[in-house]
């Protein structure tokens, strides 16, 4: 995520400067419109998974500048902040792999998890660019479409399990150990893992919006519409598949936990948002 920080901060500053210049002139010419908007509630990460996917909610808030080519047609650019959330659920997951213990003894680490639940949350700064058509009059119908590029600002995932059982199989002795706990082998109920960082890539989306525009004065308007933002690319770069539960030879009682997106159980994450959008505009 860090490699994009410079890019999206530079983009934000350029957009804000552009909007500021336009705002100083919108009152002098009716070709310019400046608006603020909020939207929601459906906003989530959609992906392929072997478990159950629960779509979450989020919100958006942003600024928009539009330039009118004529009374019914305009082009616009904006800046917005959008949150996303999703939850993946699995009734049962298990894995095993060869590793070495604290005494450099080779063994097969095994784990079994029941009712695993992973909650994922993301925050993105989006830059939308689009066109808008509206009918004449003081009460109008409008239709807008375009594209968005989004830069991740924050992302976390939080994991819980009803039960986690870990064991170690030593083939050289033909024995499987389910204890002791200090060796990393135990059966634990109600496992909860603290929030961990979730790094995602730049998002590219198609956006569509339609609804009503009502003039409430010579220079002010209110938009009430429905919108859809549909992600076009996978935003999670998985270099290799990892195990959900990772043995820690240095401190066996402190196991490491990876996201389901680092494992074979989930892939192809895209951002989707839809719902209602309310805009207040000045022209």
Verbal overview:
With 283 residues, this protein is mainly beta. It is built from one helix and 13 strands. The chain has one helix at residues 2-26; strands at residues 32-49, 52-55, 60-70, 73-100, 106-134, 139-170, 175-177, 187-197, 203-215, 220-231, 245-246, 256-257, 266-282. The chain has an eight-stranded antiparallel β-barrel. A hairpin with a 2-residue loop joins strand 3 and strand 4 (73-100). The longest helix is centred in the first third of the chain and has 25 residues, at 2-26. The two termini are 37 Å apart.
> End-to-end distance, in Å?
37 Å
Helix content: under 10%
CA radius of gyration: 25 Å
Main sheet specs: 8 strands, antiparallel, barrel
Query: Overall 3D geometry?
Result: rod-shaped
What is the number of helices?
A: 1
Mean pLDDT metric: 91
Strand content is over 45%
Helix/strand order: HEEEEEEEEEEEEE
Instruction: Flag low-confidence runs.
Output: none
Spatial ordering of strands, largest sheet:
1-3-4-5-6-9-10-13
Structural class: mainly beta
The total beta strand count reads 13
């Amino acid at each position: 995520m860090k490699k994009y920080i410079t890019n999206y901060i530079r983009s934000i500053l350029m957009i804000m400067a552009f909007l500021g210049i336009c705002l100083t002139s919108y009152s002098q010419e009716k070709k310019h419109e400046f608006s603020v908007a909020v939207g929601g509630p459906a906003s989530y990460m959609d992906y392929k998974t072997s478990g159950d996917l629960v779509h979450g909610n989020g919100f958006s808030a942003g600024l928009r500048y539009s330039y009118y080519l004529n009374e019914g047609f305009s082009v616009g650019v904006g800046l917005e902040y959008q949150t996303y959330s999703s939850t993946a659920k699995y009734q049962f997951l298990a894995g095993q792999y060869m590793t070495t213990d604290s005494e450099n003894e080779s063994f097969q680490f095994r784990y079994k998890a029941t009712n695993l639940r992973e909650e994922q949350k993301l925050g993105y700064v989006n830059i939308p660019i689009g066109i808008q058509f509206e009918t004449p009059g003081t009460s109008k119908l409008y239709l807008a479409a375009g594209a968005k590029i989004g830069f991740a600002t924050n992302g976390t995932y939080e994991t819980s399990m009803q039960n986690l059982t870990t064991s170690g199989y030593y083939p050289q002795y033909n024995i499987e150990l389910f204890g002791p706990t200090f060796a990393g082998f135990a059966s634990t109920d109600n496992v909860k893992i603290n929030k961990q960082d979730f790094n995602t890539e730049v998002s590219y989306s198609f956006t569509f919006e339609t609804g009503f525009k009502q003039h409430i004065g010579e220079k002010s308007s209110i938009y009430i519409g429905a919108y859809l933002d549909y992600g076009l690319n996978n935003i999670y770069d998985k270099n290799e598949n990892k195990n959900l539960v990772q043995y820690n030879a240095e401190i066996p009682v402190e196991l490491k936990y990876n996201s389901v997106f680092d494992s074979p159980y989930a892939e192809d994450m895209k951002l989707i948002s839809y719902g209602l959008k309310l805009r207040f505009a000045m022209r």
